[in-house]
Design a protein that fits this description.
The complex is a heterodimer of chains A (159) and B (109).
Chain A lengths: L7 H14 L4 H22 L8 E8 L25 E8 L23 H8 L2 E6 L12 E8 L4
Antiparallel strand pairs in A: 1-2, 2-4, 3-4
Helix pairs in contact in A: 1-2, 2-3
Chain B lengths: L1 E7 L2 E7 L7 H13 L4 E8 L5 H17 L2 E5 L3 H9 L7 E3 L2 H6 L1
Parallel strand pairs in B: 2-3, 3-4, 4-5
Antiparallel strand pairs in B: 1-2
Helix pairs in contact in B: 1-2
Classes of the chains: A alpha+beta (159), B alpha/beta (109).
Chain lengths: 159, 109
């Protein structure tokens, strides 16, 4: 998607629908969509400084129940087999080409202070089981790495 | 998202319909600032028509609360859905705002 707030609603619907397909209940689907929304808002506002021309990739995988690894190539439209466990969770990766920042510097703020803003990272960490920021590595052409990668995982067993 | 403003004596009411996110929170911010501009005794924000809110919506309401305090206006949020309530709880703002279940409760305060 482009770094424009008007796409947020559509991405929320997509993420919620995929989470439902993976077996999350309605409340969890809403929370996962919120976490993704907050992550995208941070990329739009801080990563791209509100420029509408930035590119953001949202990638979603089911997490295998037993291995805990994502199901590479798993078809989300494949019928759920009654004898096969549902996906163990969801992994969402959000990537951008915005300026790289120190992942250690991205943290929740102190909530004791009541002020507008700065809640996104806290919300993501409250909702998701794993939240990991890292620099995007150089691509296959050997270009210097650009942008950030955010990986978020939520397991169904944590509902 | 749509925002509707009403006035009832010294009480202003802002009713919100639709998702409040980064795309729409600016419109809500504009209306809240306008409603608080006249320094009413009370400003009720009716969220019964809001199925979803993210932290930009919450930030808009925090800003309104700070402005209301300066104007000596009582700010009351009413009729939040469970989903919207949960973001206030995650942000630990559910005890900071005056939140009531419905419009009647807000008018009675």
């Amino acid at each position: 998607m482009f770094s424009q707030p008007r796409y947020l609603s559509g991405v929320r619907s997509l993420v919620s629908a995929v989470a439902q397909r993976l077996g999350f209940d309605e409340s969890a689907c809403g929370q996962i969509a919120l976490a993704v929304d907050e992550a995208l808002c941070n990329v739009i506002r801080h990563g791209y400084q509100r420029s509408p021309a930035g590119t953001i990739w949202v990638k979603i995988w089911p997490v295998d129940d037993e291995a805990g690894e994502h199901c590479e190539g798993a078809a989300l439209d494949a019928p759920l087999d009654q004898h096969r466990p549902r996906a163990g969770g969801i992994r969402i990766v959000i990537e951008d080409l915005a300026q790289q920042v120190d992942p250690e510097a991205i943290r929740s703020r102190d909530l004791e202070e009541v002020r507008p803003g700065g809640l996104g990272v806290h919300i993501m960490k409250e909702i998701m089981d794993e939240v990991r920021f890292e620099h995007r590595a150089p691509d296959e052409t050997g270009e210097r790495g650009r942008g950030m990668r955010l990986t978020m995982v939520k397991r169904r067993s944590s509902e | 998202m749509e925002v509707r403003a009403e006035q009832s004596g010294s009480v202003s009411i802002v009713a919100v319909e639709g998702d409040v996110d980064l795309n729409s929170s600016r419109s809500l911010q504009t209306q809240l600032r306008e409603s608080l501009g006249s320094a009413p005794d009370k400003l009720i924000v009716d969220l019964s028509g809001v199925p979803y809110m993210d932290s930009s919506g919450v930030a808009t309401l925090v800003e309104a609360m700070q402005l209301a305090r300066k104007k000596d206006t009582k700010l009351v949020l009413c009729a939040m859905s469970d989903k919207v309530q949960s973001i206030f709880e995650i942000a630990r703002l559910d005890k900071v705002f005056t939140i009531v279940p419905d419009r009647a409760g807000a008018e009675a305060i």
